[in-house]
Amino acid sequence: MAIDLNTGSGTGNSKIKNSFGLAVAQMGPVHLNDSRVAVVARLLEMMREAASRGAKMVVFPELALTTFFPRYWMDDAEVNARFFEPSMPSAETQPLFDLAAQLKIGFYLGYAELTADGHRFNTSVLVDENAKIVARYRKIHLPGHSDHKPDAPFQHLEKKYFEVGNEGFGVTDMLGTRIGQCLCNDRRWPETYRVMSLQSARIVVLGYNTPSWNIHWSEPPHLRMFHHLLSLQANAYQNGLWVAAAAKCGAEDGFHMIGGSAIVAPTGEIVAQAQSEDDEVIFSNCDLGLGETFLQHVFNFAKHRRPEHYKLITERTGAGEPLSASALKTTQPQE
Ligand code: CDV
């Protein structure tokens, strides 16, 4: 392979050989009293646009069907009745599945899941082009708190309303590629992506609701967007995969959340980014071969990873004391 010294490109043929049309459907605000029917109508319109632009798949936000209700302190009976889905699809969400089958487009959707035996999860599903649910993910890194904070401007009660996901970070073969899913706060944790890239995920999709204000400390608001993009870009690059992230954003009943929905390439570069804080579809023809360049060289996992030196990552949750010299020493693994 010739290296073009003018461009610095060593990736060979610039024509996209393995192109995947990927759309992200950002949502503007969903207010407390907006109906599921009205929300689903907005999602249907964006699904149509995504398909018309050539998307094989469209990514919707976290908790896409309702307002971001963890900001409200409510009793369990009320919250279950108003915001949780006892089934997926349901009468209100069935039109999404019908249109997906008609348009032959896959999708990712985040919603609040209430199981038959009363467990509650912050969940997403991957739905294929035949409208079949092929994978489910239950959010693992739940942010916020479970107690009432009456002095805070709003609550972040994910730890009250949801249990920690119990099904791991799986990946799924669909639409001719391998896709991993996560939700919002998961995107800030490198373990999320590495567990999926070790299963050869090519795309990670996620939805998010990120309040512009941090109720725990006076974080400068611009850092919310900076850290959101930094997390997507660093992890796309370090794992040689595409990342597609869909926000629910703008002011929901006066509570503002960041936009910035984005599609990030395995180079770490943003290839599409939402400009508004409203319903908006962004799209990219993603070269699924692009990550290979990194995964065969700088991030050739089989060749360069040294898991014998990473044991603390699974042995410790919080930071602790330094390891002793003898604990740090390890025998060399056999080739
Ligand atoms: N829904 C979320 O998980 N939101 C968090 C906020 C609380 C920081 C996020 O990581 O964006």
From TrEMBL:
Entry's Gene Ontology molecular function annotations: hydrolase activity
Family annotation (Gene3D superfamilies): Carbon-nitrogen hydrolase (3.60.110.10)
Endpoints of the signal sequence: none
Domain CN hydrolase: 20-288
Keywords in alphabetical order: Hydrolase
Pfam families assigned: CN_hydrolase
Domain of life: Bacteria
InterPro entries named in the record: Aliph_Amidase/BUP, C-N_Hydrolase, C-N_Hydrolase_sf
Full protein name: N-carbamoyl-D-amino-acid hydrolase
Protein species of origin: Herbaspirillum lusitanum
Classification lineage: Bacteria, Pseudomonadati, Pseudomonadota, Betaproteobacteria, Burkholderiales
